[in-house]
What does this fold into?
Amino acid sequence: MNYNSTRDSHRTASAAEAIATGISREGGLFVPERFPQLTQERLLQLSKLSYIERAKDILGEYLTDFTEEELYRCVSGAYAGKFDDESVTNLARLGDNAYLLELWHGPTCAFKDMALQLLPHLLTTSAKKVVDGKEIVILVATSGDTGKAALEGFKDIPGTRMLVFYPEQGVSPMQKLQMTTQEGGNVAVCGIRGNFDDAQTAVKRIFTDQALAGRLEQSGRMFSSANSINWGRLAPQIVYYISAYCDLLADEEIALGDPINICVPTGNFGNILAAYYAKRMGLPVAKLICASNENNVLTEFIETGVYNRNRPFHTTISPSMDILISSNLERLLYALADNDDAQVRALMDSLSAEGSYTLPAPMLERLRDEFAAGCCDDGATRAAIRATFDTYSYLCDPHTAVAVKVYQDYAARTGDATKTVIASTANPFKFSHSVLEALGEPAEGLAEFELVERLAACTGCEIPAGLASLKGRVPRFSDVCDREGILDYVVEQLGL
Ligand SMILES: *Cc1c(COP(=O)(O)O)cnc(C)c1O
It folds into this structure.
């Protein structure tokens, strides 16, 4: 299996090259040259296996330059004993036709763990194949969930170093505590005075600083990235959609071959793209339902074919979906254009020049065939948290609630009664303040762990161990710098 670039379909890379380098040199994203096909027989076989075995099997189709033994080591290193649910993910029923696919049973209580527990293993194994002996230095700019999941995934992984930058005023108290108390001898965390875009822009500048890269190379190291444009983050996400289908099959909720819908609360379009790829592999999927918050650029795009980022940015109670440029959408465009790289380049050029583009009619038709879309604001999100708890005794976080609401609207609008898997992306205790407010419980003026404990008391839900253990912990990292100071911080940390 080789990988092509979305902006140059003649460029090919092995899986290890695609993962070690992250992004193609002309700025395109790596995509598999074809989609391995799952027969019904194969789905039936997979349904009898554990999550780890399913993951090894499915990833083996994509990472053909990994040996069987390497794959097994990577996958069990990522998932064995690291998740609080033995089956790694969990499916919870929501009414007659819907299921919540809980993807947050990992150490940081958000779905990013599903990929970021595995990425360090894939990255170090890939690096051994293509750039043997180099230490990999990973720089991360985060708005919250990615930073903690990346830190937890890479801590004490030999051959790696990680530096994380977060907006000092722009993350939730729980997210900040999760990051500043991080353990591990190879990691450091620094707050910046500025917003997420400032952090991201500064980090990108460091990645493309040739002089710095030269000095790093001389010292036997190289930069890499852990964000969701890396194929090594996307591939692990395909697995859980196939695995969910297998679980429904094993539980006799569906019969072999029955189509399901998949509804995903979407930000950077990575998670829902993985569901689309699972469909391309032959998983019986009818509609992919793209759920957005008030930043509804994708809803408009799927309905009209016009992508327009020139709009106000809303700060919402589902912050991981507050994104106006969804980088992974480029991979979908490439597929909708039948791998026509010139088409993708034209659309991406229009996006950077005008901040918008319009899909040609044949691509729009294919898009609307595969996807439905919807959005809701914070008020509707809070109402969905409350209604879901009152009706089903199920407590969901604000991101998941957006997807629940959008799914329910879709089902009411279309009458579609197809069984639907809704991706549940975070544990509600990560967002205790918003969830308490949604339930109509007083939350003002309480410290973070008072909120957590009140939420547990009023819902009877259990505080996840990964968050409970942070109580009373003294932060280890207190560095803060201006955005202009990030480069100096990196130079100092790396002794360059
Ligand atoms: C990152 C994140 C999302 C958005 O996922 P994308 O892959 O960026 O679309 C949704 N919910 C939570 C809790 C997240 O952390």
About this structure: Residues 110-112, 145, 228, 265-271, 320-321, 399, 425-426 surround pyridoxal-5'-phosphate (CB under 6 Å). The mean pLDDT is 94.
